[in-house]
Amino acid sequence: MEIRDLTIFVTVARTGSITKAAGQLGYVQSNVTARIQHLEASLGTVLFHRHPRGVSPTATGEVFLRYAERILHLCEEAEQAVRDNSSPSGPLRIGAMETTAAIRLPAILSEYHKLYSKVQISLLTGPTEHLVEKTLNFEIEGAFVAGPVHHPLLTDEATIQEELVLVSKPGDDNILDPKELSSRNLVVFREGCSYRKRLEQWLDAHGIGHRTVVELGSVDGILGCVAAGLGISLVPRSIIRNEQHDLSVHELPDGYGKVPTVFIRRKDAFLSPALAKFIAVVRKHVEADRA
């Protein structure tokens, strides 16, 4: 079993396509197919279901995928551990909620790049549940998510307190009246977004079970649609200060308006010099916000 074969297997599993995996890896499709067949023959099992839409891991393939990801991650850790750590370099893969990426990260990333220009940062944005899964699967080294996060394999490094507010179209004065809310659309991110979950919990507490959801993929899109009267949403107050949309802003009662944003990473993962320096810059900004 070769590391190259494990890399091909994981890429095929993640993309769900031999063709896409070949494109990402820079291989011809026939070579990827041959290496997967060789791996299956050496293991004596079928790793993928083949279907018209592409491929998907079998039950055995799912088990092997977890081990393959861990092996590849350990190989990467080993390389990082023996490098000269005096000046961080190489890739740093992190994740963040869309709102955090818009509000908090520009200043953090700008300072970090000035200090450690040899580090190549890649940022994945998405909802909390998605980012937690990516961190657990070693696909990113850490992520800014809505806390608290309770998982035996994760630790959090910094906490940013966010105040969540309900936003609606201009001129809405009685928006917090349950009767008024029952007729409004929810303009939110897809399932897995912690702010959406909290909004739904608040509505449930007021007996508002039936609602129409409009899912969008960006903060600017959500705020623009809310300002145009499409519906309501729940967002950090700090994002309102950074946007130009005309909105009505309403504070949430009953303790629903406060939520911590934490930076999570795996406890058992190697803390690379690039990630260690990044966490130090994050802590500096968090302390400055609290001062």
From TrEMBL:
Q: Which part of the chain is the HTH lysR-type domain? A: 1-58
Please give the superkingdom of this protein's source: Bacteria
Enumerate the InterPro entries for this protein.
LysR_HTH_N, LysR_subst-bd, WH-like_DNA-bd_sf, WH_DNA-bd_sf
Q: Which SUPFAM superfamilies match?
A: Periplasmic binding protein-like II, Winged helix' DNA-binding domain
One annotated GO molecular function:
transcription cis-regulatory region binding
Keywords linked to the UniProt accession: DNA-binding, Transcription, Transcription regulation
Q: Looking at the keywords, is Cell membrane present?
A: no
Matches recorded under PANTHER family: HTH-TYPE TRANSCRIPTIONAL REGULATOR, HTH-TYPE TRANSCRIPTIONAL REGULATOR GLTR
User: What family does the database annotate?
Assistant: Belongs to the LysR transcriptional regulatory family.
Protein's recorded name: Transcriptional regulator (LysR family)
Organism, scientific name: Kyrpidia spormannii
Q: What is the lineage of its organism?
A: Bacteria, Bacillati, Bacillota, Bacilli, Bacillales
Gene symbol here is gltR
